[in-house]
Amino acid sequence: MLRARVQELESEQRRVRADDPMRPVSTTLVQLSRSRAIDAGDLEPAFREITEAAAATLGIERVGIWLFDETRSAIHCQDLFERGERRHSSGAVLAASDFPRYFETLQSNRTVAAHDAAADERTSEFTQPYLEPLGIGSLLDAPIRLGGTLVGIVCHEHVGPPRRWSSEDQAFAGSIADCVALALQASKRNRAQEAVRRSERRLRQIIDLVPHMIFAKDIDGRFLLANQAVADAYGTTVEALTQSTHHEVHRDGPEVAGMLADDRAVLERGQPLFIPHESFTDANGRVRHLQTTKIPFTESGTNEPAMLGVAVDITEQRKSEQRQTLMVRELDHRVKNNLMAIMSIAEQTIAASDSLEQFQDSFNGRLRALAVAHEILAQTRWEGAGFDKIVERLTQPYRRPDRSRFELVGTGVMLPTPVAPVLSMVVHELLVNSAKYGALSDPGGTVRIAWSLPPDDGDGRVLQLQWSEHDGPPVMPPTHRGFGTDLIERMIAYQLHGSARLSYPPSGARCELTVPLPPPEDRG
Amino acid sequence: MHRNHDPNRSLAGYKVLVVEDDFFVAKSLGVLLTALDCEVVGPAPTVDEACELIKTSDIDAAVLDIALSPGTSAPVARALLYKECPFVFVTGYSSINMLPDDLRGYRVLLKPVDADTLADAIDEAVQRGKKQKKGKLRN
User: Fold this and answer.
1) Quick one: which of A35, A241, A496, A524 could link to B69 by a disulfide (CB 3.0–4.6 Å)?
2) Which of A342, A495, A522 shows the shortest C-beta gap to B70?
3) How far apart are CA A227 and CA A220, in angstroms?
4) Element (H, E) at A379
5) Rounded-to-integer distance, Cα A182 and Cα B134, Å
């Protein structure tokens, strides 16, 4: 037996090239057991290493690794090594239904050693389509099993006249199949680990994208997890944060004490806690307002008690609520003040009216002037009104289609809220007077309104307004002071602490106003 | 408009200081007080002008708008307290949040104010002032 085997091996050896001598089985198996590709489940290089080693050790021409597809209806060649050409290829497919006896045999054997493959009934199905065209004489096939399931075959194919496979060859073929199984197992494990890593990265990416603060702390206040929003708020990185305790990173002592007390309460009671509002001083010293939910949990794996927190920044929301509250109060104040003002305007318009029609005209005009100011103020949410807009609106009914009646010279001066209605009333009275007695009573008359706001010289800003009428009828100074004139001078002095000077040169009435503008936050 | 005065409650001849920054509201308060046969002192639109009038004029009572531009009439109220001169507040606000704590106990009228309410409030403030003065004399 041994002599025959040795002779066989020697004759085999003569046929292989000098640079590829046959290697002892044990050397090959030790080499494969040290293979990094097999250990890492790096399938393509692992398979190449296995087929080359098997071919060299058995001194045969072809070694192929075939794996079943998902439906187990066919085997696909993963790697075929042809030793003579030193060539690797892959992709061939064999349908299981074409070779029923062969596949039946694989189920129950460690190896299928067909010394004379064409004559062996287990492998004779391959004669016509496979063995003859390739000149294969002998087959030594080893099923690959993973967890007891047949997943593929390693085919050792001897080209030439039939040869005998020794029992050592057969044991070696089984070991080769085990090597393939090891590589497949490692690959499967790697894929599972990669899937876990990918899932972890995806979760990390998602919690870092969430604009709310998400964090988990243990019973000592150590961060188990924190997202980017928390790191940003503390002006640090997620990595640095997860190695710190809360009181190490939070600068405001009383604040962090309150937060840690909440944490303790959550952990002690084992109940979630909703905190509708808490203040939070961030790394830039900016006070932010948070709405926070804290939920107790036990860490899986360690069973240690821990706390999950989600904090939503409600700073902007609170600001807008505060603005709204202020605005409602402001409006309440204004509505009531306006009611009294309107009562007063009515009383005084009655006193200066000769008829009901005259009262109606004057009263409606004055209310419209107030309404114009309020409408423009409402557009800016009561932050102020552009004087140019007020003038534009009030002069509208007096304009000619070509707009040539008024010369408006001035830039967009923003009137503080308390000033706008008063100046609107003043411009209205000037227009009414002009329409009755001045330039606007004549088709050729024009009115120039010029205003400016010189830079603050230290005493606050002062609006300068010049009203001058041109090309109207000859001017006669009024014989008595009407409500309009009285209103202009006294209202400017009383309410705006400014001055109004009306004069009546023959060329046209003039009015000069000087109105100090209070800073925007002042309320009337 | 002001026909139903209680004949037992006459404010005739009272000198009443008006502190109110709105021109028309000040005028309106003036009209109401004149109808009650009071003599209007002012009106004053600012704390400074009001305090000047308190120093220089003879005043029996005062009507103070709480919110002035700028500030509040609290300093005026304190000056009046010092002179033991009765006063009432008027405000457009439905709350009195702008008043400091020491001035929270005083009568606050809501705008718009009618003549009867104003007369009642001034009368009440004057009576209370008299009682306090008597109390002090007895001690």
Assistant:
1) A524
2) A522
3) 19
4) helix A356-379
5) 110
First-residue to last-residue Cα distance in chain B:
44
Query: Letter for the amino acid at A475?
Result: V
Residue with tokens 């209202």: A491
| Lookup: tokens for A72 | 């187990």
Quick: pLDDT tens for A276-298: 999 999 888 889 999 999 999 99
Dihedral pair phi/psi, residue A250, rounded to 5°: -95, 120
Choice between A478 and A172, residue whose per-residue pLDDT is larger: A172
Q: Are B109 and B1 in contact (CB under 8 A)?
A: no
d(CA A415, CA A385): 5
Contact A327, A226 (CB under 8 A): no
- Is B45 an interface residue toward A (CB < 8 Å)? yes
- DSSP designation for A380: T
Q: Which helix (H) or strand (E) holds A145?
A: strand A136-146
Question: Of A336, A341, A497, which has the smallest distance from its Cβ to B24's Cβ?
Answer: A341
> What does the pLDDT average to over A226-241?
93
Which of these ranges, A220-229, A315-324, B37-46, B110-119, has the smallest mean pLDDT?
B110-119
Nearest C-alpha neighbor of A309 from the set A235, A236, A229:
A229
pTM score, whole prediction: 0.55
Going by pLDDT thresholds of 50, 70 and 90, the confidence category of residue A86 is very high
User: In this complex, do A337 and B92 lie within 8 Å of one another by their Cβ atoms?
Assistant: yes
Contact B80, B74 (CB under 8 A): no
pLDDT above 80: residue B132: no
User: What does the pLDDT look like over A114-132, one tens digit per residue?
Assistant: 999 999 999 999 998 889 9
Which CATH number applies to B15-95+102-138: 3.40.50.1820, 3.30.300.180, 3.30.70.640, 3.40.50.2300?
3.40.50.2300
Query: What does pLDDT average to over chain A?
Result: 88
Residue A106: which of A131, A87, A123, A90 has the closest Cα?
A123
- The residue type of B25 is V
CA dist., res. B121 & res. B88, Å (int): 7
Tokens 């004949």 belong to B7
Domains, chain A, ranges and CATH?
A: 2-190 (3.30.450.40), 210-313 (3.30.450.20), 318-517 (3.30.565.10)
Q: Which of B7 and B84 is assigned the larger pLDDT?
A: B84
Phi, psi of A459 (to 5 degrees): -100, 15
